Amino acid sequence: MSFPLIFGCMALGGPWDRSEITSTQFDAAHTAVRAAHRAGFELFDHADIYAVGKSEAVFGRILAEDPELRRGIRLQTKCGIRLPGNTGPEGSPVHYRLDRDTIRASLEGSLQRLGVDSVERLILHRPDPLTTLGEAAQALDDLRSEGLINSVGLSNMTLRHVAAFQQVLSTPLTAVQIQMSLAHRDFVETQVLGNQSEGTEYNFPEGLLTHCVADEIEVQAWGAMANGIYSGRGAPEGDPTAEATSGVVTRLAERMNVSREAVVVGWLLRHPYAIRPVVGTTNPERIRACTQAPEAAAHMTHSDWYELWTAARGHALP
Ligand SMILES: NC(=O)c1ccc[n+]([C@@H]2O[C@H](COP(=O)([O-])OP(=O)(O)OC[C@H]3O[C@@H](n4cnc5c(N)ncnc54)[C@H](OP(=O)(O)O)[C@@H]3O)[C@@H](O)[C@H]2O)c1
User: Which positions fall inside the NADP-dependent oxidoreductase domain (predicted)?
Assistant: First the structure.
C-alpha cells in the first residue's frame, strides 16, 4: 500500500465563521500542509463545511502559492451536511441534503475554493432520508462523466447504504469513512460483545468492515488520534481510564522507540482490514510523529494491541 495515513484538513483556515482568513491562519495552514507533504501524506481530506469553506479556500491558496505541493497529492472532499450559517441558511436546523442540485453546487464550490478541476473522490458526508439513493447516485454519475470526480465515498453510513449505493451507482464506490479510534472502539467492541448485555453500549454498522474488505472499498477512520487524549493532550478531568491508557501508550512508545501518536494511530493500522487513519493535527511535530504509525503497528504484538484496547475500555474483556 502507498502511505497509509490521510491528512485531515478540518482544522485548517481558522474558526467556523465567515471571518477573513488572517495571515497568521494562512501561515499556520501552509506550515501544516508543507509538513504533511514532506512527511509523505498523499491524500488530503476536506469537506465543504470545514471552517465554513475556509479550509478548502486556504488549501487552494496554498497550492496556488506553492505549486510544488501539488506534486503527488490527491484530494477528496465531502458534501451533504447543511449547518446553519454555513452550508445551510441561518436559523435552519442542522440537516442533510443529497439532492442533485445540492451535490452539484457543493462540489462546484469545493473545486472553485480548492482551485482544481477535479477531485479524486467526493464523499457523501451523512445519509439524507429525504433523498432517494437513485437521485444522489445519478448526480454523482453525472459529475463523474463530466470528469469532475473519479470516484465516490460514503461517510457515517451503514452496510445497507453501501450495498444499495453499489447497486445504483455506475461510478466506483471506493471508500467508506467512519469514526474509529482507541477512544471510539465500537468497531471492535461489537465484534466481541455480540451476546453480552454490555454490547448494547456500542453501535457500529454490522458487517460493514467485512463487506468493504471483500469489495475492496477502502476503510477510512476519522478521529484517529483520539483527539490527543492518550498522547500528550492530557486526559479529560477525572478520567482515570484515559490516564491509565496514556500510561500504556507511553510505555509502549518508549519500548518501540516511536512517538505516542504513532502508538495511538498504529493501533488502527495493526487491525487486519487495512484501515486508513485520517489524522487531524495541524502541529508539524505531531504530523511527523504520526508518520511513525506504520512502524508502531509493525512492532505491536498481539498482546500489546489487546493491552491498549483493555486499557481504553477500562476493564477486562469478558
Ligand atoms: N467524516 C466525518 O464525519 C468526519 C468527522 C470529523 C472529522 N473528520 C476528518 O477526520 C480528521 C481528523 O479528525 P479530528 O481532527 O476530529 O480528530 P483527531 O485526528 O483524533 O484529533 C486531532 C485533534 O487533536 C488534537 N491533538 C492531537 N494530539 C494532541 C496533543 N498531544 N496535544 C494537544 N492536542 C492534540 C489536534 O490538535 P493539534 O492540531 O494542535 O495537534 C487536533 O485538534 C478531520 O481533519 C477531518 O478531515 C471526518
Answer: 4-294
Q: How far is the CA of 57 from the centre of ligand 1 (A)?
A: 19
- Dist. CA 194–CA 183, nearest whole Å: 20
CATH number, domain at 82?
3.20.20.100
The answer to the question of residue 247 being in a domain is no
- Ligand 1 atom nearest the C-alpha of 222 is 10
Which residue blocks in 152-270 are alpha helix, DSSP H?
159-168, 186-192, 208-214, 240-256, 260-269
Ligand 1 center to residue 8 CA distance, Å? 7
> Which residue's CA is the nearest one to ligand 1's atom 13?
223
- Domain of residue 54: give its range: 6-236+264-283
Which residue shows C-alpha cell 495552514?
Answer: 29
Band (1; pLDDT cuts 50, 70, 90): low
Please state the domain count of the chain. 1
Is residue 272 assigned to a domain?
yes
pLDDT in tens, 202-230: 999 999 999 999 999 999 999 999 999 99
Written as one letter, the residue type at 162 is V
Residue 73 lies in a domain: yes
Closest-CA residue, ligand 1 atom 28, reads 228
